[in-house]
Design goal:
The protein is of the alpha+beta class and 207 residues long. The protein is built from 6 helices and 7 strands, in the order H-H-H-E-E-E-E-E-H-E-E-H-H. It has helices at 2-9, 13-38, 50-55, 139-143, 175-193, 196-202; strands spanning 57-63, 84-86, 101-109, 114-120, 132-138, 154-156, 158-161. The protein has a 4-stranded mixed β-sheet with strand order 2-3-4-6, with no helix packed on it. The chain has a 3-stranded antiparallel β-sheet with strand order 1-5-7. It is globular and about 40 Å long. Residues 46-203 form the DUF8188 domain. Keywords: Membrane, Transmembrane, Transmembrane helix.
């Protein structure tokens, strides 16, 4: 018995634990965290609900403020109203630049007396200032008094120029392209941006 205890005491448990951690636990950590946290972090059923959101949407016509106007909220508080957001989808930091990201244009809409946010999950590379736009908004969002505030602006997932393109490339004048862009924009908005509790209430509860 004593010989066994002496033998056990000589086993380098710390070194063995370090080897196990280095070769097994550490490499598996991203997969473990992804399975526990990221798997259900976002609204993965958005692909099945986007048509319902689109069907309840309509187009409004607005005149956008000038680029340096206080009506563009970024000009008032750039920390509170950022131009960009990235959504983490994995624990693996090497995947950072592959994570989806959204561009935001927060502004006050004078015609409808609501705060709105033009959201795009693709770089538009254009200009909204001093232009007349057709904005596509969701009816439920517009009718909900909880939307349209500074803290919770109405999401705008499609914006095209009335008489001139917004995108410098002019791609938003292509109706086929812009409809595909809009479809993908809605899916990404519902999946990554809409709060999970709201998504469950508006879509999952109706199944």
């Amino acid at each position: 018995m004593m010989s066994k205890m002496k033998f056990i005491s000589f086993i380098p448990w710390v070194a063995i634990g370090s080897v196990i951690g280095s070769f097994f636990i550490v490499p598996l950590m991203p997969k473990i965290v992804d399975a526990l946290y990221y798997k259900d972090k976002y609204n993965n059923d958005a692909i099945y609900c986007f048509e319902q959101y689109i069907d309840s949407s309509y187009t409004i016509k607005v005149a956008m403020p000038s680029g340096n106007s206080k009506y563009f909220l970024y000009n008032v508080d750039e920390e509170r109203y950022p131009l960009f957001e990235r959504f983490d989808t994995t624990y693996n930091s090497q995947n950072y630049f592959n994570n989806p990201c959204a561009e935001y244009t927060f502004f006050y809409c004078r015609e409808y007396k609501k705060y709105m946010n033009i959201i795009t999950f693709k770089d538009v590379n254009g200009n909204y200032g001093n232009k007349e736009l057709y904005l596509t908004v969701n009816r439920d969002d517009m009718n909900n008094p909880e939307y349209g505030t500074k803290d919770n602006p109405v999401p705008v997932l499609k914006a095209v120029g009335v008489s001139e393109p917004i995108w410098f490339s002019g791609k938003d004048s292509d109706s086929v392209f812009i409809e595909e862009f809009y479809r993908n924009n809605v899916i990404n908005y519902l999946k990554y941006k809409m709060p999970k509790e709201e998504f469950e209430r508006r879509f999952r509860s109706k199944k």
